C-alpha cells in the first residue's frame, strides 16, 4: 500500500487528502502520466499546438458524420430482412453464423464450445451462408 495525495490529482480539493492505494493503482497512474507527457512532447515536436475545432461542431461533424434518415431506414430494412432469412436457417447454422459474425468468435472457439470438430463448424457456416445468399437473392 502506498499513500497518495488527492489534492495533487484533483483541482477541486482545497486541502490535502491522503489515501492508501494498492501498488498496482500507483503503477497504472504513473503509466498514464508517462503516456500523457509523451503525447504532450509529440504535440510540441510536431507543432500541433492548436486544434481546428472552434467548438462550433465542424470538426465533430467531419469525424462523425450524421447519417440520413434514408440510410437509417435502409439499414433497418436490411437488418429486418437478414433476420428473417437467418430465422429460416437450421438452428446449428444460425447459432454458428451468429457467434462467428455477430459475436466475433473464431471458428475454433465455436468448435471448442460446442465440443465438435472445427471442420464441422466451418462447413455449417459455409452452407448456412449459401442458404442465406439464396434466401436474400430471391427477394
From TrEMBL:
Domain of life assignment: Bacteria
Gene3D superfamilies associated with the record: Winged helix-like DNA-binding domain superfamily/Winged helix DNA-binding domain
Protein name in UniProt: Sigma-70 family RNA polymerase sigma factor
Organism the protein comes from: Paenibacillus woosongensis
